[in-house]
């Protein structure tokens, strides 16, 4: 069996590991535009000088030999022939072709500049998706006096943290009413906003950028916000727009939509023997989800039927300025048919959202020690409406017993 994996980030790398575990003698080829494997989740650590390039690596130093994978570095996939089962590659003097029995598409995503007047024409505008972006930002920031980050999601907050590590102040513009709107509620988001403001960061929330003004040399000079204010800016980092890397799939018959590649619960596309995982799908743009999708796809490629339980694909953990936080599922209840269980003790904040006893979301901030119990409650599908004592006071002994092999089990009686 000959497996080809396109993309060497979270989904692709973990797919290689899983394929090798399940198929010790198979041929595995990994194709990536990157020359190195590194974690994009902690690029801000490299930006701020906390980690070296080597310390961004999330694979073993002997990755290629340990997993017996042929890694083609610095090579772009430019197209597919699904009938001949060939991948078209751009390398050297011209294109070449690589045959496969089964193919995993894990080509990731890229920065997309929104349709804002003057944004795409201005100099001094950068994305925040890869090592090249970060190195350009570090170089440009040396002479910058007015740095602005566009987007208050996880990537935007990473970028702001990176500037603080560099000793640089900055401003952030976000369309939503709070930071990290997909992960946090008003209470937990405000803790981060206050902490960053104390470090000198200025926030412009519930507003966007309507126009980018340029100086005589074509570089960004200021931003006109949607509320009419003008914000000085000589370096702009855009984290608000992302697009899946699916251009090379055009005219292949592989189904995509406005978000990205379409896959089912097994990671399978609509074309036999072609699978997908990670940011190329445009649906679960966080590291744990990409890892899980890569492993699920690899398992099914190897003939071991596995499904993805994507209900809590939105699980996120973060730790900005010494404030650890975990977000799971829904950050706020959609309507009054859902119930909330809250505990707010200043630096410690915990919330669980449930409906008919089923947990749909949770936020833990300040102390994540309850995460283990919470995970067991969800995994065991325990009806939290039947909990007799305060939810945040339970421990394993309240619900779980141990088998002879020390595994936990739950007895509803």
TrEMBL record:
Keywords: FAD, Flavoprotein. Residues 2-294 form the FAD/NAD(P)-binding domain. The keyword Flavoprotein applies. Residues 317-381 form the NADH-rubredoxin oxidoreductase C-terminal domain. This is NAD(P)/FAD-dependent oxidoreductase. Pfam families: Pyr_redox_2, Rubredoxin_C. GO terms for molecular function: oxidoreductase activity. The lineage of its organism: Bacteria, Bacillati, Bacillota, Clostridia, Eubacteriales. Its cofactor is FAD. Coiled coil: none annotated. InterPro entries: FAD-bd_OxRdtase (IPR050260), FAD/NAD-bd_sf (IPR036188), FAD/NAD-binding_dom (IPR023753), FAD/NAD-linked_Rdtase_dimer_sf (IPR016156), Rubredoxin_C (IPR041575).
